[in-house]
Design a protein that fits this description.
With 207 residues, the protein is an alpha/beta fold. The chain has one domain: Rossmann fold (3-Layer(aba) Sandwich), CATH 3.40.50. Helix content is 43%, strand content 20%. The protein contains ten helices and six strands, in the order E-H-H-H-H-H-H-H-E-H-E-E-H-E-H-E. The N and C termini lie far apart (59 Å).
Length: 207
Amino acid sequence: MTQPQPQPQPQTSVAAFDFDGTISTRDTFLPFLFRAFGWVRVLSVLLPLAGEGLRVLRGRASRDAFKARLIARLFTGVPVSAITPHGPRHAEAIRRWLRPRALARIEWHRAQGHRLVMVSASLELYLRDLAADLGFQDLLCTQLGQEGACFDGRMAGGNCRGAEKVKRLETLLGDLSQLEIHAYGDSDGDREMLEIAQHPFYRPFRD
């Protein structure tokens, strides 16, 4: 009698979405800083960094280093309790910036039973609630370090951008080569994530 042959297991499918510029129409990080600290405080920190900021925009300076300096100057020693309440408020405010086509694609992946992972350089402070409300099972993003009851001015685990996005996915999911990955991004910071996907989509939701 012929023995039944084992059937191959279906490959697990993952949909990894960047947030700023991909699901949202714009950057959400700076608006959060203005919400949490006020315009005067944020501009007083940004102005001395203006030269470096211009070099970042021209691709001549490190975006990660600039962000680290900005966070250090704003968050160091600030009580966590003073900033945390602004997270849900910002999440609610930026809902009007979400791209309808991106939301429809997220819903399509959910209907297919795919694992939804948001992978963003933006802050957990406001992405946590938003990712959950949009139906993402996992959130990989930039987190702020704490020392006691205050922020320590550092990014815990680094900025979730570029190769760090792939590293975080590997930590969460294991061997990525064993997965069917759909990746959605809109910038150079998503390049490595798009490269490891069988189904990469660069700026797919823009008209």
